[in-house]
Description:
The complex is a heterodimer of chains A (about 170) and B (about 280). Chain A contains seven helices and no strands. Chain A has about 170 residues and is mainly alpha-helical. In chain A, helix 3 packs antiparallel against helix 4 (about 75-95), helix 4 runs antiparallel to helix 6 and helix 6 packs antiparallel against helix 7 (about 140-170). The mean pLDDT of chain A is about 85. Helices cover about 30% and strands about 25% of the residues of chain B. In chain B, the strands form two sheets. Chain B has a six-stranded antiparallel barrel with strand order 1-2-5-4-3-12. The longest helix of chain B has 23 residues, at about 65-85. The relative contact order of chain B is 0.14.
Amino acid sequence: MNARIILxxxxxWIVLLFVQxxxxxxxxxxxxxxxxxYVLFILALPFGIPNFLLFCIAFLTGLTLDAFYDTLxxxxxxxxALAFIRILFISVSVNREAFDEPEPSLGNMGFKWFSLYxxxxxxVHHLLVFFLEAFKFxxxxxxLGRCLSSIVFTLFTVLLVEFLFLNRKAN
Amino acid sequence: MRNLWIFISRYNAFFFFVFFFVIGIxxxxxxxxxQRSITLNSTNEVVGSAxxxxxxxxxxxxxxxxxxxxxxxxxxxxxxxxSLKNIDSSKTLTVKxxxxxxxxxxxxxxxxxxxxxxxxxxxxxxxxxxxGLVSGMGxxxxxxxxxGYVYDVSAHFATIRSLLHENTxxxxxxxxxxxxxxxxxxxxxxxxxxxxxxxxxxxxxxNIGDTVITSGYSKGQNNGFPKGIPVGRISRTQISTxxxxxxxxxxxxxxxxTLQYVYVIKDKFAxxxxxxxxxxxxxx
Lengths: 171, 284
């Protein structure tokens, strides 16, 4: 890992968390759907990152978000689970010896791979966030509805951002 | 021992996952059980001041609405003042001691963080223990309606457990017949304009449009609302519960989505009342 990659990721962390906390926190449709764009930061960390470092980063990112959302532990747990799913998915679907791409992005890996990767990771993350927040199963249907509509919203914003950066690289 | 080490390092991702996941779950559960002990929330000075800075911009954009609501409030106060002045004081002979009658004082505060979309909503305001706030005081909105209870205070900030929180219960009564119950939110209802009144016995007759006000009864510690603050209007009465109490749906007067200023109620006699009530079980 060279200095440029580290710098890009730090910048991405600051920008994504800023947008999440000050813009997207106030955005929702009919109290049902709210986007968590910040997961893109963990999705887009480089392939070569050591597992322990990945978990530490995910943990701290979740903790920072929890501090601003007043939900200590909820996003932290979800981010850690997201990191684990990321490791599993990459180990199953990417050939470790053959790949030469630095990080998982839409431009590097193609639309099909990236969208599947994003759907699975976001699904796990959102299920944990919404069910830990509700912390009971009596309103499971409502929680599930919120969760699914939020997954669609988050996925939409994640792909949107990826397409934006794709164009910038091509130019 | 060596084999064990090889096993662990081979599946290191899983063990790291378990380790961090357990920490996360413990944090979540601890947060639910002893929410007081948490310092990493918006009472924190860093987080609090970040939100405050952002709110400077937000407040400016909403200036017109705030002006309108303030002028409405002013006119209401002036009307009250005029009606008070018109009382012929020469007819009343008894002297009222107004110094000791003033049980409640209000502290105004700016809302620097608010949410209405979560399952449990917390509001942060820019007054803290330096302004005399303690946990458990009631918070009302400047126009009409109640906001919640003070929950945790730091020197310059305080968090309020909003009415839109599953653990907030407020003792309320129906204005026309004084039947009292408790106001709750959550449990399937996540509309920030609605709440439910529970525990009112079935034999009371309730109509749609009846006003609900706070009862002023103490429940738990520091229930800080004086009697008679309007809360909302009944919007639905036919909700079957199957027991001898009814559940009423209430349209709240207070609009949480546009909340900008709140008043915190200081009760001069809260401590006295509480010590008196705490003495009860010891005498038995």
